[in-house]
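Weekly modeling sync, notes
Attendees: AB, CL, MP (scribe)

Item 1: holo prediction request
CL wants a bound-state model with pyridoxal-5'-phosphate before deciding which constructs to order. AB pointed out that an apo prediction alone won't tell us much about the pocket. Agreed to run with the ligand included and paste results into these notes for async review.

Input as submitted:
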Amino acid sequence: MPETSAAASTPASLETPLARAAAVPVPDADALAGRFPLGPGTAAASDAERARALTDLHFGSVFTDHMAHARWTRGAGWAEHGVVAYGDLTLSPAAAVLHYGQEVFEGIKAYRHADGSIWTFRPRYNAARLNVSARRLALPELPEEDFVASLVDLVRADARWVPSGEGESLYLRPFVFASEPFLGVRPAGVVDYYVIASPSGAYFTHGLEPISIWVTQNYHRAGRGGTGFAKTGGNYASSLLPQGEAAAKGCDQVCFLDDVTERNLEELGGMNIMVVDDDGTVRTPHLTGTILEGSTRSAIIRLLTDAGRRVVEDTISLEGLLADIDSGRVREVFACGTAAVVVPLGRLTGEGFDVTIEGCAVTHEIHDRLIGIQYGAHEDPYGWMYRLA
Ligand SMILES: *Cc1c(COP(=O)(O)O)cnc(C)c1O
């Protein structure tokens, strides 16, 4: 990965391999449906149980009736595709994932539109990214159409779990892990793929309220040549202690600096960051290999560019950012990701500094534009939305 310090005049790239992969058309859901057939004898929650579960939605605590599954074995490849009852897994205590963390995951949502139809957002982006992550973790790749098919079949089985309230969605969590019982250190020969689904309300309970950020100078999320660009549980495991440090300082989230210069902003534990300048330019850190390439980041770059804004991938030093916030050159800072969508950062603090950021006009604009497309209130000129059911 290039370690550039390209001038901030370079327009943000809309043509990354992931963006290109996401642009390849996916067959209609009707053509993919049935690749993960619904198994027999799967008990469903009663309407009353489901209604109770859907009343007070938080993030990721309630799960639907089913899960999609397939198993890969070395030599034979992927098999056993199906949608089965949601429930506890039986796993050998020697399963490699429990010892060496060989695991990758995705996060994508299903949205109910006003006419009752159910849609998702750029599923091929997540399909391609799962495989980028899988390659780094020495896990087998899943055919991209099978990834989308697993979402189609699971959402069709659990369609009644897709909520319709404002900001609500069915959060889909595909994941792949090493299930082979073997303590030797090598890529596992048996691997499971599951998709579970969780009806969810807003990620941050205070909505579009600005959040506060602790910039840690003690920990890094990722290092050069490591797994920062992959969506893997280990990155999250290593973010928990610094997240605790942030919480102890009274902050909502932690922000990481790069591990080489220890000066440049990278991202939050699970969200990319963007900065809005007083001339309307939006800047976001370069994809250096230590940053996760967000689908939301990519969509926002496209939306802002098409709205006539200059969007640049830049090296954003903490020192420079603090000076620019102080001088008024930087007006807004926001974070973005599938789970929380777009969130303004209202306070940036760390060892020796504590600043507030007042602006949030562009943040609100981009939030409304994006969720307008996702929930079907705005037209989708990009072909980003994919009808699941
Ligand atoms: C998932 C994730 C993001 C956001 O990616 P989206 O595709 O926009 O949801 C950002 N950073 C990290 C570390 C992530 O794991």
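Recorded for review: The pocket of pyridoxal-5'-phosphate is lined by residues 107, 231, 267, 270-272, 292, 294-297, 337-338 (CB under 6 Å).
Action items: CL to compare against the apo run; MP to circulate these notes.
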